[in-house]
Amino acid sequence: MVVPTKRNIQYDYIKGIAIFLVIYGHTISHIDIGQTSWWENPIYMFIYMFHMPLFIFSVW
């Protein structure tokens, strides 16, 4: 018999934030903000520093 474990809801919140950051980061890359390149956007660079590792470690 498999004993169900308690679900840690904090991981679900972290995963939700990471999913939002992935969507937001992809959206920023398609918005023209007047700079020469979307990669130079500081918000985009900040999000892309940690959003995928955050998502992977929240699933793990």
Tell me what you see in this structure.
The chain has 60 residues and is mainly α. The protein contains 2 helices and no strands. It has one domain. It has helices spanning 9-28, 42-59. The two termini are 24 Å apart. The relative contact order is 0.17.
Primary descriptors:
60 residues, 2 helices, rod-shaped
Write the layout of secondary structure elements.
Blueprint: H1 9-28, H2 42-59
Helix pairs in contact: 1-2
Proportion of strand residues = under 5%
Basic shape: rod-shaped
Order of secondary-structure elements:
HH
Total helical segments = 2
Structural class: mainly alpha
Largest sheet: none
Low-confidence stretches: none
E-strand count? 0
Give the overall pLDDT as a whole number: 77
How far apart the termini lie comes to 24 Å
- What's the helical proportion of residues? 55-70%
Question: Domains counted in the coordinates: how many?
Answer: 1
Radius of gyration: 16 Å
Keywords: Acyltransferase, Membrane, Transferase, Transmembrane, Transmembrane helix
GO molecular function, one term: acyltransferase activity
InterPro entries: Acyl_transf_3_dom
Protein name: Acyltransferase family protein
Question: What's the short version?
Answer:
By secondary structure, the chain is mainly α. It has helices spanning 9-28, 42-59. Helix content is 63%, strand content 0%.
